[in-house]
UniProtKB/TrEMBL annotation:
Key word Transmembrane helix present: yes
Organism: Methylobacterium longum
Record's protein name: DUF983 domain-containing protein
Pfam families: DUF983
Residues that span the membrane, as ranges: 56-76, 82-104
Record keywords, A-Z: Membrane, Transmembrane, Transmembrane helix
């Protein structure tokens, strides 16, 4: 029996919808950040997915720096008491660093699937890397 064909999914679309990178319908996550074992619609095994620290890196570079800069600006401009930072800066940093994690993790999993990414290997000295055919 032939395997059904699926329309190619956009990595950004997969990330926004948190859907399967193959069929676009099944759930990608079984929790907030836990990748499901497999797609509940097409059965794609998600064991290939290992975004590691990638999502945290992208969040730090895109959200954490501006959120922290806000807290520094608030301190240098107004010198407010500590409780003001607790009710303004702390929630901003927590929200800015937590919410985008799911998006970035979904995006990296989709990129790994679409680009057929694999773990890097070191070639043995003298081993031919050419195709024998």
């Amino acid at each position: 029996m032939a395997e059904p064909s699926y329309a190619e999914q956009s990595p950004i679309g997969v990330a926004v919808r948190s859907r399967c990178p193959r069929c676009g319908r099944g759930h990608l996550f079984s929790g907030f950040l836990k990748v499901a074992p497999r797609c509940d619609v097409c059965g794609l095994d998600y064991s290939f997915a290992d975004p590691a620290d990638g999502p945290a890196f992208f969040v730090m570079m895109t959200a954490a720096v501006p959120a922290t800069a806000f807290g520094i600006w608030l301190e240098l401009t107004y010198s407010p008491p500590l409780w003001v930072h607790a009710i303004t800066t702390l929630p901003i940093v927590l929200i800015a660093c937590t919410l985008p994690l799911r998006f970035f993790k979904g995006w990296l999993v989709a990129e790994q699937y679409i680009r057929k990414a694999e773990e890097g290997r070191i070639a043995r000295p003298g081993a031919s890397t050419r195709d024998p055919t």
